Amino acid sequence: MPVYILDSAGLFRISLINSEIMFTTNEAVNEVVNENEKLIVNSYIKNSKLKVLEPQKDVLKLALNIIGANPKLAEADISIMALALQLGEKYDVTVITDDYELQNALALNNIKCKGIKTIGIKKIIQWTYRCTGCGRYFKRPFEICPYCGSKVRRKPRKIKDKTG
Ligand SMILES: [Zn+2]
């Protein structure tokens, strides 16, 4: 069954999304601050067209691990990633988001996503992490190098065309 998971950008334009089953998280709903948009989102929640779910704690942890030390992704993004992982076990999930960083993280984990403003990203960037002190490369993000304690910076490693 195809389901859509909406982040705040998706919630802002919920009336454009034509789907029977839509999910979001409390964190994403909390990012909707405009009164009019709030009213619209709440009406979808009332009609049960939009279901607000809290991702399970263990899945949230997993999402946090996947996203790692990416300061560009907020708590709401992590909750959306977690919900996508959780519902992905049962449903054919597509995340609606305009956030480039989140789209990239989702694509790397084989979770489908669609942009509202954009048509989705065309390229997937894979990141590598390099210590600014000793120069070691890491596959996982670290804030601080475990060898020398210097700052670790993110660098694009490989750019490949997105399939599908
Ligand atoms: Zn180092």
Any overview of this molecule?
Helix content is 34%, strand content 24%. Strand 4, helix 6 and strand 5 (112-114) form a beta-alpha-beta unit. It has helices at 8-12, 26-30, 35-46, 57-67, 75-88, 100-108, and strands at 2-6, 22-24, 50-52, 92-96, 112-114, 123-131, 137-138, 152-161. It has 2 domains: 2-114, Rossmann fold (3-Layer(aba) Sandwich); 123-161, Single Sheet (Rubrerythrin, domain 2), CATH 2.20.28. It is built from 6 helices and 8 strands. The mean pLDDT is 86. Strands 3-2-1-4-5 form a 5-stranded parallel β-sheet. It is an alpha/beta fold and 164 residues long. The structure holds zinc ion. Zinc ion (ZN) binds at residues 131, 133-134, 136, 145, 147-148, 150. Zinc ion (ZN) is lined by residues 131, 133-134, 136, 145, 147-148, 150.
